[in-house]
Design a protein that fits this description.
single chain, 4-stranded parallel β-sheet, two-stranded parallel ribbon, 9 helices, 6 strands
Length: 224
């Protein structure tokens, strides 16, 4: 498995439990592999892209579960990284009911979807930088995913790192749920007063956060 070199140790440890070979590379190499859909040294192995159709179809089952449990949902908020998760979820939701709003959320350190939706075309985010929200934060909107997200995502909410850290604290203190930055971001978006009123679902995708970063957040600070 090809992973960026800043991957949290918690996430890395869980991957290693599956007896998988890990290749750590700098973020730029990792993102280039996503763009090119290949990586030198992969040999005869199958390259599984986060936006492959089968992967996105699997994500679509999240949308089906939401509809099963809450058929009158008005708005669903998903984190945005490469776009595979929200494309799958929104495809299922809007096939059932086109009036359901599907909103993305992105950290202020990486908002390629936000700038792309405003421009009406896929763009790169020029001021990209890494943060503790490691499950999100692509440099640009993938050209192959743009035809989907431009029609399936109603808007993207930009969040500060402080807002995401606060959402992590809320989920732990009030709900006993441990989430990583990308997992807590939808709640941060729901609390930001940028979401229409109604019945809202937040997709809390990911609970892999290193303990030292979690302690920093619980102490009221934002990890570097």
């Amino acid at each position: 498995m090809l992973v960026p070199d800043y991957i949290p140790q918690t996430k890395l440890s869980r991957i290693l439990e599956l007896d998988v070979k890990i290749k750590k590379v700098p973020f730029t190499q990792w993102w280039d592999a996503i763009l090119s859909r290949t990586y030198d040294g992969i040999g005869q192995s199958t390259f599984i892209h986060p936006c492959d159709y089968n992967v996105m179809a699997g994500h679509g089952t999240i949308g089906l579960e939401i509809l099963e449990d809450l058929p009158d949902v008005d708005t669903v908020i998903c984190p945005y990284g490469s776009g595979g998760l929200i494309t799958g979820v929104s495809s299922a939701l809007k096939h059932h009911n086109k009036s359901i709003k599907v909103l993305a959320c992105e950290p202020e350190t990486a908002t390629p979807l936000h700038v792309s939706l405003k421009a009406g075309k896929p763009l790169a985010f020029e001021n990209h930088r890494s943060s503790f929200v490691d499950g999100m934060g692509g440099k640009n909107v993938l050209e192959e995913i743009w035809p989907y997200v431009s029609h399936l995502v109603d808007s993207s909410i930009v969040l500060s790192l402080e807002e995401i850290a606060e959402a992590i604290r809320i989920l732990i203190n009030r709900n006993s749920l441990v989430t990583e930055g990308a997992g807590a971001a939808p709640l941060a978006a729901a609390l930001s007063n940028k979401v229409p009123n109604g019945t809202i679902v937040c997709v809390l995708s990911g609970g892999n956060i290193d303990s030292n970063k979690l302690v920093t957040i619980l102490n009221g600070q934002v990890p570097t």
